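Section handout 9: paired folding examples.
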Amino acid sequence: MTSLDRNQLQQMILFSELEESHLDLLLDRHRETGYQAEQVIVMEQDWGESIFLLHHGLAKVRTYTADGDEVVMSLLGAGDVFGEMVALDGSVRSADVVALTPLQLVKLRVPPFKSLLQENTVFALALARLQVSRLRDLNRRFALQTGDATTRLLDALAYLARKSSVSNDPQALIPALPQRELALLAGLARETASRTLSKLRARGTVSELDGGLKLADLQPLRKRGLID
């Protein structure tokens, strides 16, 4: 993977309206590191010392219920920032972040990020829009928890596709993931997710491509109001 430079940073939505001097400030003494699938990047209740930018790959934000059941709160794709709350309130991490695929991560220093938030309204608003988008995704997904298995799995697949694409494309290639991860994201038992996925393949709604999955037909999602 290539090292993140100023031009690549500016192509990411959160940083797209920043001036070159601001981009250089954020990249000052940044660090880059790689993770393999299933590696834990940050843990809940850790003290935050960095803000993270996902350069390539896919990760999940997870927590656990009082009964010890894993809950996937959101997905993170290329261009997503996480751990930014440390720049706002200095609090501990609120959830685990775990790599779903091999990924490249950029660690940004907190002081420049925090300073830019305080001084640049455009950047602060861009971060607020990012957080609002995450909240909407979370609300939508929780609202679907009473839906049928097909609806929940289709929504999970579309979410994975969008996060795997720089253009937010619901028909982008979904990387090969264990069925356990698909089930967790959809809020289904593994066996239920497996049966439902088999049905979607048989109907031609989902196809296999390059070892991954793709939503070949979006009409079932439109009928369920999952996409416009």
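Moving on to protein 2 of 2.
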Amino acid sequence: MRLGFWLGLAAAVGSLLLPLLLYDAELTIYVFIGLSIIVVAGLNLLYGFAGQVSLGQGAFYAIGAYCAGILARRGIPPLAALLLAPVLTAAVAVVVGLPVLRLRGHYLAFATLAFQLIVLSIAGQFRELTGGDTGLTGIPDLTVAGVGFPLERRAFGYAYLTWVLTALALLLVHNLVASRPGRGLRALATSEAAARGSGVPVGRYKLQVFALAAAFAGLAGGVYAFFLSYIAPGSFPILLSIQFLVMAAVGGVAVVWGPVLGAVLIYILAQVLQTIGSQPGMPLHAPAELNYAVYGLVLILIMLLLPEGIVPALRSAVASGRLRSPGGAAPGMAAGPGGAPVPPPARRQ
């Protein structure tokens, strides 16, 4: 079997067993990383496979969180509220995507960024519904038929819930990419005109993948709301959308496993920067400024050194190692003096 299969299997088993070894504080980080992977998996579909740049995934993350929290507080069963969160988020994405997806490139990125600012402004203004700037408090815990996670094992339960949802999200992306619509998305990312000429319904595919990416973010936002039991506009800053985009770029766009590596590396980096920026004597805005500066530096380095991301670079390195013999020659070729490959003798007719 392929090396990628075994690496994926090892990562799945390792992430399944890891919560058994973690304390509550570490489990919280585990949950946040898993939620980031879900969001970035959707963004990877939109950006990596369909070629549509978005800086608004934080907005859909917030919409999912508010939908789940508000519905649960209004008496909807928490599980039903969680399931409705991605559906409602996708519906909002369809309404927003109809005009916005007429834009391309950085115009689309700026439009989605403006959409997040609008969402945060609305969340801060409608106090009776969202709690305003104070935030939405008293979100009930996630339960199934009235049964929830035990208080002493709450973080442990959410860790495994996040693991299951992350695995399902990655499996869905994998199957979608391997399907006929997935090939259409890749054609769309290469050239919209060529894809349209080949019979790909460009407008419909763009809107569908935009809504699906939003649904991923809405699902993660719903889990986030139940896990913390409190959300506010400050929980979803602009930096969050930038962080998601950096995760996608670092791990590798157009690669199913890219979001996993990208989310782990960037989230750990964010925690390190938060710790540095919170040291005594540092200004209050130091953590945010450090994040913006370092994320910009990381994006520049990735674009210059590893434009396709870390996972594709590792795959290329492994593939090139396989294609060469220990002496530096390709398979079926002997190594001559100095390691130069010598072709095999021609067959006699």
